Amino acid sequence: MARQTDTTVTNDGITDQYEEYLMPIWKDLHVPVKRATGCTLEDFEGNEYLDLFSGIAVTNVGHGDDAVVEAAKDQLDEFVHGCTYVHPQGPAAELAERLAEVTPGDLQKTFFCNSGTESVEGAIKLARKYTGSKEVIALEMGFHGRTLGSLALTGNKAYKADMAPTINDVAHTPAPYRYRSPYRDADDETFVERTTADLERVIGTHTADDLAAIVVEPVMGEGGIIVPPTGYLRRLKEIARDHGALLIADEVQSGYGRTGELFASEHYDAVPDILTQAKGIANGLPLGAFTAPAEIADAFDSGDHLSTFGGNPVACAAALATIDRLEDEVTANAREQGAWLSEELAALEAEYDVVGEARGIGLMQGLEFVDPSAGTGPAGIAPEPDAEFAKHVGNYLREQGIVAGVGGYYKNVLRLQPPLSIDREGLERGVAGIRDAIDAELEAGR
Ligand SMILES: Cc1ncc(COP(=O)(O)O)c(C=O)c1O
User: Fold this and answer.
1) How much is the pLDDT for 1?
2) Do residues 389 and 408 touch, judged by C-beta distance below 8 A?
């Protein structure tokens, strides 16, 4: 079919409409998108961009993947909505059964919603119902969403300004962020021991013996791509157990092949009590989910929770096709390409003082930019974060036709989270672009 080109729609026209008619929540807009395939975005003026960010880690099997699009179209022809919690229907039933197979350990029963935030909110309700306790602990620098419950767990005041009060009874514990940790030079075992001793201290000082859950991103995304050492998740589960609480793994961002396993928890040999999912689950169709062992899931009674759109059949059909693609080849590709990318980014860290740390797993990688001339940064542990440098690198890349994310708690991390179907050539172009961007910034004296 010939592509339609509406020459009256321009990039500026679209952003003007945004200014005029969308609420101004995101001032720093990225490239406008008219269409997207594989790892390529096209704007309204025919410019193409290499996508290294996947719409914030969502289109894991590539934009417009044939199998996913086909599955969604087939379901559109059948029916679009029946409310999963009123009318039993095939796609939700089949997907829930599939999730019982592909999620770790004894995770078995799923609740479907529409987003990551909702999956976290629902998981907290389930933990409270099952344990009969109320308090929740999350990680400093963690991100779990922006509704008032998930926002309370999000460990970053930048998201909370003017929005308090959120839900009560949430405390935060230091993240396993080795680069700026007082324990940065310890071996993995000692690092885990000390970081989780801090958690015990937080439980002792900030809670009232009424702990329902510890919530953790197995690999932290928005905080700046933070990968905890092996043993960390297992120790969190033991501590949760000791306090009669559940371990909730928020895999909204780290799930669905992103780290080179279907779920990041698999790297850590720890089965969470509840696993939250969204983003990559349906390759861009809105769907969220949380999955728990039957014993925990059955704590919910009829009416305890519901979602009108949750488990939408078109989204569930797309999710089934997405999981097939991830299992066929795409997760393995993430593992292979991620290992290569990791080495390339480590080389940049070795070469440039402004790259404080390269870190990541699979195709969830980050480069933390620092200003080595500005002395030590927070807590006197590593060089001062350099958010401006990271921003300039992101902008330079965009001018070269490459889309990457810039974020992290200090806003100084270049985030590379491309579609997991990306090939070596795409990554080579990305790495070369980053090198050029750093050189250009250094030459400009920034
Ligand atoms: C780990 C994690 N949890 C929850 C969310 C919230 O997801 P959503 O934006 O779909 O509500 C995000 C979004 O970035 C996330 O990274």
Assistant:
1) 41
2) no
Name the nearest CA neighbour of 325 among 69, 49, 39. 69
How high is the pLDDT of residue 27? Answer: 73
Task: Tell me, in angstroms, the distance from the centre of ligand 1 to residue 155's CA.
Answer: 13
**Using CA atoms in the order 341, 347, 353, 357, what is the torsion angle rounded to 10 degrees?**
40
Distance 232 CA to ligand 1 centre (A): 21
Report the share of the chain in percent with pLDDT over 70.
98
* CB of 122 closer than 8 Å to CB of 299: no
Per-residue pLDDT band at 7 (split at 50, 70, 90): low
| 66-326: in CATH 3.40.605.10 | no
According to CATH, the superfamily of the domain at 11-65+329-443 is Aspartate Aminotransferase, domain 1 (3.90.1150.10)
Residue that the structure tokens 């699979």 belong to: 362
Residues near 6 by beta carbon (within 8 Å), at least 6 away in sequence: none
Measure the CA–CA gap between 262 and 269, rounded to whole angstroms. 13
pLDDT, one tens digit per residue, over 374-401 is 888 887 889 999 999 999 999 999 999 9
Domain extent listing, the chain: 11-65+329-443, 66-326
CA of 7 to the centre of ligand 1 (A): 35
Q: Which atom of ligand 1 is nearest to the CA of 220?
A: 1
CA proximity to 233, closest of 190, 204, 267, 203: 267
* Strand ranges for 311-351 from DSSP E: none
| Angstrom distance (rounded) from CA 421 to CA 134 | 41
pLDDT of res. 379? 78
Residue 30's pLDDT band (cuts 50, 70, 90): confident
Show Cβ contacts of residue 152 under 8 Å, excluding neighbours closer than 6 positions.
136, 166, 167, 168, 170
Structure token digits, residue 51: 């996508």
Report residues whose beta carbon is within 6 angstroms of any ligand 1 atom. 56, 115-117, 120, 143-145, 217, 221-222, 250, 252-253, 278
Adjacent-strand bridge partners of 403: 51
User: For residue 2, what pLDDT is reported?
Assistant: 42
If you average pLDDT over every residue of the chain, what do you get? 96
